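Dear support,

I submitted the protein below through the web form. The confirmation email said the job was done, but the results page showed an empty box. After a refresh the structure appeared. I'm attaching both so you can tell me whether what I see now is the final result or a partial one.
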Amino acid sequence: MNDSELKKLFDYIESSTREMIELETTLTAHPALAPENGGDGEVEKCEALLAWLAQNGLPAAIRYDAPDSRVSSGKRPNAVVTIPGKSDDYAVWVMAHLDVVPVGEKSLWHTDPWSVVEKDGKLYGRGVEDNQQGLVSGVFAALAYVKNNMMPEHTVKLLFMADEEVGSTYGIKYVLKEHEHLFRKEDVIVIPDGGDERGETIEVAEKNIVWLRFHVVGKQTHGSRPDTGANACLAADELALLLHDMKTVFDKRDPLFTPDCSTFEPTMRLANVEGINIIPGNDVFCMDCRILPCYSIKEVLAEVDKRCAVIEKKYGVKVEYTTPQSEESPATPVDSPIVKKLSEAIKKAHGKTARTIGIGGGTVAAPLRVLGYNAAVWSTLDDMAHQPNEYCVIDNIVADAKTLAVLFSL
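What the results page shows now:
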């Protein structure tokens, strides 16, 4: 692509900030919460998005909806918009998720979370950054080609997914399970759902994730007679500390990640008894474990079992646990085509030198990598995901759209 063609793409993107804000406003006005978060799914938001895209000249989407009887529509939407390229030997994918997390404590918000407010070059609202910013950047990178009657070098596919915030069962995992024919190992996959404020970091690896929910069963008794019961709360407390200490066993370091070690953190705890003078016979707590990829989940759970056995013997309790989430995946090679092409696009669009990193969080890259698809997570953002007063920087939408437009030209 010559400089004049690239200028046309950039000029269109730079002149489209009002339309970007319009699309962000449309999307935010349709809360897309999973049933686990008290919502009714993403269908209304998806249909509003696809209507906007059709009105603005993008090809019609093909839907790959996952059935889900918990939502009123009975389905969780996944949609693909295809922009034909000069070559179809592989596709360039931009994957963004439709769902958002709940507002949280509404009193902490300075604006209505479901109504976009523009202020000082930022857009405020739930979902505007996570993940609508990446979604909008991908849309306007594609529109830059369509509006200028130009073809990208390779077929471009925009995938809008459901269910990312609570595990992707009805999103990318469903699409991979039921429609894997959509993908090829040669495809270049970008997930604009993580990054840094300069847009220089390309995430190629994620820590293995294990969520654990423990139920400690003892014997309830009077607070004055601990000798007649088995204190489930006390046993749970020591078990949490013992599990947290597993970092001394799984103690390797990897500078690709921050923090550079495996972590085993107690998190949510459920109420047990209603009186101070009651020793509980049941206690439930959870842990969020982020494990360096050099360790398997299997070996971590084997160590968990050992430590649960120690507590059972010491306190005369029974420990049961489940794994609400368990995910491990290989890394995307740093010399893979997606990393090379995305680095080249960042350099060409903004003169910046990208670097590769790993993260402790989970993205839709993990299930793709498990099946052998190389994916890179990248964006330019302030990392406001899940926070009150979530915002995105308008200039970041523009900058990332430019990077993606260059990527589509390579």
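Response: this is the final, complete result; the empty box was a page-load delay. Residues 297-315 form the longest helix (19 residues).
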